[in-house]
């Protein structure tokens, strides 16, 4: 067997029925138990995105979301969708949607637990994610599972989503644009010189940004992510507008193909399971719900409320899959680019852009896609370095030598990425994704009771959100008081200054007064 065949066999084993059932099962369970919270509270979640909040953490909630989106919205939204549709037919897009819908509840739970169980150092540095909610939420006897997750997280960053697949997709698109450029012998093979130059330039730029740390990554992400998403969605909307008459037919192909791929594409399509497997696997690659990566970024948010950050976190899955991936998928299906046998990877989406854009824009389609792809992949590379470093920090502690060594290895992986085959790159990424998700999904199931209690408590205290000012006012007046429902002592401990906010804490204050509360004020003699 060749290396590619071995990797494919491992990928098929990892992404078998048990893992698919686990991913969908956890999402369905959380969605039902939370009474479809992702649907009911999505507008409120989007309002929280842009509100500033004070609390422990290193970046704003919006900055944390952009860091997560920078890692989430990447080549999976362009190349991953294309490979899924080519392998499983248009129906793979349906399974992406399904995984994303239930994945919103999963992402909510991840963000909530990340903030609740994060570690805050005296200097303000925060560290959190699945490794800490596994250890602190489940207990020290589960630390082995946390370590496994952290090690796999480093591997995903170095060999999976973080480097190989992103860099390979960038250089592949550059090679397609500059296909007439001369070739140069390197590593025993000939490569397009444009690919080599692109790889070197990307390596240098990534190195410059990485050594700026998490705050620089957050700043770059906040500036780049909104721009790249808007640009890409606008281009896709132009394609859909130019082909509006075939959109109903495209949706028919998607829904029919989800359960009977051959009815749509005949013999070239895979089986029902292939469509489901590719749709869910690429969906996880794209939105990372259940993977456990996004909560690492969520833990760095400046917030005091775990539920609040959970709501912000779940918007990432909505934007990533239900918006960006849908745009890509529809563009590919309505143009029929997925049905051209000679095309694979980024070439499929390039064909969709070239064929779908009207007039002169069609000729510029591949270049436009290349620009979008560079933005997507570049920010994903930065975001996954952040994830990998946090995983390393959990395993090895805050050792600068270890962090610098990881960054050097990461930059080396970026340099190597252009010279790997497309099939091997995507299959390796899928394998590490699946393995990384397993410890996190186990923790989400075991800690689901915490998620439900925190959610119920928060929405009992804040049932509506009339304005950001009102919410901020409530939280400010409640700070350090019993409405935190955790029994904290009053600030300063001075009895004469201690005024219980009964209008906020309500019955909880009477049932469980905080330590030090004067008996005559809490009603208990």
TrEMBL record:
Q: Which NCBIfam families match?
A: agcS
PROSITE patterns assigned: NA_ALANINE_SYMP (PS00873)
Q: Which family does it belong to?
A: Belongs to the alanine or glycine:cation symporter (AGCS) (TC 2.A.25) family.
| Cited Pfam families | Na_Ala_symp
Q: Which residues form a coiled coil?
A: none
Q: Entry's InterPro entries?
A: Na/Ala_symport
A GO MF label: amino acid:sodium symporter activity
Where does the protein end up?
Answer: Cell membrane
Q: Which UniProt keywords apply?
A: Cell membrane, Membrane, Symport, Transmembrane, Transmembrane helix, Transport
Q: State the name under which the record lists this protein.
A: Sodium:alanine symporter family protein
The annotated region (Disordered) lies at 484-525
Chief localization: membrane
Q: Which cellular components does GO assign to this protein?
A: plasma membrane
Question: What membrane topology is annotated for this entry?
Answer: Multi-pass membrane protein
Give the stretches traversing the membrane: 13-39, 59-86, 92-109, 144-164, 191-211, 223-244, 250-275, 318-340, 360-387, 408-429, 435-452
């Amino acid at each position: 067997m060749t290396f590619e065949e071995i990797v494919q066999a491992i990928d098929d084993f990892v992404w078998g029925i048990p893992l698919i059932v686990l991913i969908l099962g956890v999402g369905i369970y959380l969605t039902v138990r939370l009474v479809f919270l992702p649907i009911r509270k999505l507008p409120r979640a989007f309002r929280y995105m842009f509100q500033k909040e004070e609390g422990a953490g290193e970046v704003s909630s919006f900055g944390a979301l952009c860091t997560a989106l920078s890692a989430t919205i990447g080549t999976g939204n362009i190349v991953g969708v294309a490979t899924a549709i080519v392998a499983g037919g248009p129906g793979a897009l349906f399974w992406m949607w399904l995984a994303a819908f239930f994945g919103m509840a999963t992402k909510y739970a991840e963000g909530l637990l990340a903030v609740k169980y994060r570690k805050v150092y005296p200097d303000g540095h925060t560290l959190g994610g699945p490794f800490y909610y596994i250890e602190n939420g489940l207990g020290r006897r589960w630390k082995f599972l946390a370590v496994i997750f952290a090690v796999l997280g480093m591997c995903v960053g170095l060999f999976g989503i973080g480097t190989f697949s992103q860099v390979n997709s960038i250089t592949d698109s550059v090679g397609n644009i500059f296909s007439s450029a001369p070739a140069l012998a390197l590593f025993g093979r000939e490569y397009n010189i444009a690919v080599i130059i692109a790889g070197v330039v990307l390596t240098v730029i990534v190195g410059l940004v990485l050594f700026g740390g998490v705050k620089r990554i957050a700043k770059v992400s906040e500036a780049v992510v909104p721009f790249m998403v808007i640009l890409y969605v606008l281009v896709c909307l132009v394609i859909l507008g130019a082909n509006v008459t075939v959109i109903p037919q495209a949706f028919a192909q998607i829904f029919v193909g989800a359960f009977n791929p051959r009815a749509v594409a005949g013999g070239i399509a895979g089986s029902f399971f292939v469509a489901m497997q590719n749709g869910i696997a690429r969906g996880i690659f794209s939105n990372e719900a259940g993977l456990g990566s996004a909560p690492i970024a969520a833990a760095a948010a400046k917030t005091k409320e775990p539920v609040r950050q959970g709501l912000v976190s779940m918007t990432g899955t909505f934007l990533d899959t239900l918006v960006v991936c849908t745009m890509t998928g529809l563009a590919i299906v309505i143009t029929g680019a997925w049905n051209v046998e000679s095309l694979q990877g980024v070439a499929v989406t390039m064909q969709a852009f070239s064929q779908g854009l009207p007039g002169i824009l069609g000729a510029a389609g591949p270049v436009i896609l290349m620009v979008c792809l560079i933005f997507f992949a570049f920010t994903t590379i930065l975001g996954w370095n952040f994830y990998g470093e946090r995983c390393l920090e959990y395993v090895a502690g805050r050792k600068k030598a270890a962090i610098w060594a990881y960054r050097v290895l990461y930059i080396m992986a970026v340099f190597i990425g252009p010279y790997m085959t497309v099939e091997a790159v995507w299959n390796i990424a899928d394998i590490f994704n699946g393995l990384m998700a397993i410890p996190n999904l186990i923790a989400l199931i075991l800690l689901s009771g915490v998620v439900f209690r925190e959610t119920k408590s928060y929405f009992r205290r804040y049932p509506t959100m009339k304005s950001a000012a009102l919410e901020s006012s409530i939280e400010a007046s409640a700070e350090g008081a019993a409405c935190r429902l955790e029994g904290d002592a009053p600030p300063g401990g001075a009895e004469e200054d201690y005024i219980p906010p009964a209008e906020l804490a309500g019955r909880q204050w009477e049932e469980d007064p905080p330590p030090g509360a004067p008996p005559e004020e809490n009603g208990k003699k």
